[in-house]
Amino acid sequence: QVQLVESGGGWVQPGGSLRLSCAASESVATMGWYRQAPGKQRESVAAITPEGSWKFSGYLEDRFIITRDNAKNTVHLQMNDLKPEDTAVYFCFAIQPPKTWWGQGTQVTVSS
Question: How far apart are CA 60 and CA 25, in angstroms?
Answer without folding.
Answer: 28
